[in-house]
Structure prediction request, 419 residues.
Amino acid sequence: MLLAEKNWKLIEQISAILMMILFFAAFPVQAQKRIFLPRTGLTPEDIAVIVNDDDPLSRQIAHYYQQARHIPETNMIHLRFASERSVMTPKEFKQLKATIDQLTPDHVQAYAVAWTTPYRVGCMSLTSALAFGFDRKYCAQKCEPTALNPYFNAQSLYPANDYKIRPAMMLAGTSFEQVKALIDRGIASDHSFPKGQAYLLSTSDKARNSRAMSFEKTAHDLVGVFSIQVFETDVLTDRQDILFYFTGLTEVPLLQTLGFLPGALADHLTSTGGMLTDSKQMSSLRWLEAGATASYGTVVEPCSYPQKFPSPLIAMFHYALGASAMEAYWKSVAWPGQGVFIGEPLAKPFAPSLREISPGQFELKIFSPRAGKLRIEESHSAAGPFKLFPPQQAIHRGENLFRFRFNEKTDGYLRLQWN
Prediction:
């Protein structure tokens, strides 16, 4: 009964956020078209959705995601193959990858995968095989390093253009209802600036606690950006404000007592969390079922290399810049060849928000992991040249709110820049 009540409250919270999005969308957008904001992350036009037409659940997920995220029809990639298995052979994958490459529009930067199995290609995860192609340099026969992710901690906003890779994330779940709830959480998180907590757990499991050595630095470097709690414990319970949760255990207890905010990232460092449907350890799917919006796990034994798992500091930093969940997670893993990324790819809780609060009066909300200046530039033409409109305003770490007046008939065009 308590669990049902908790789920109902979460549904009400997400519904309220969606109503706010619809409310603000009702304001006139003509003036906003003359105000240019910097790009901070992927958009629906950048994503291609890969669907297996032989899998009814895959078709259902892909259709809902396309409608919910307004993915262009030209970005829908249809395949046919047997899905009731965990592992795809490299030979079969190469044939499918050739079809995917042929059908992918040139402008697409990343993939959303609308199924849960298969999640592995030979010795690689499916998401890494889609990004890099199947290549054994991203595998390890024993406890060895693998090839470096060229996208690791990159400032790039166009991975396909800049690195010739397309990161992928799986819209994974055991039922349509679970994946629909995941997608809805991702959408509800957009521009929401959640005021949650980051929980970094240093556990008693020495073999899986290798990331803990970086936790104090993470808390120090992100002071003023996120509220970060570093605990020496195996158990987190009865917290309803989780935005980040990073730990190292084979099984994470008491997830059912926790509340995750829309947009939350969470994972556990262990050997086979990425074996989504048949792991002897806790599957990374349990994080999504508990309310997280994205997670990560390895599909084959990685050994306890922290480079094969997300760096909390890097993931949180890029998320704070306004990146999507897929970008923040992908940029945080140095050696991702054996790891699978799951969740709602386009969730962007900290992307900037611009809205007209009254005729000619605008409110800009920015989140930043570093101090800087807001530059407002104006021009009479959309093509420029743009000239700096003084004075520059200070941006502090964390959330920033600015209000300004703009008359589209007399002020021309504005370009806003920061970071």
Q: What stands out?
A: The two ends are 47 Å apart (CA to CA). The longest helix spans residues 2-25. Residues 44-192+260-343 form one domain. The chain is about 25% helix and 25% strand.
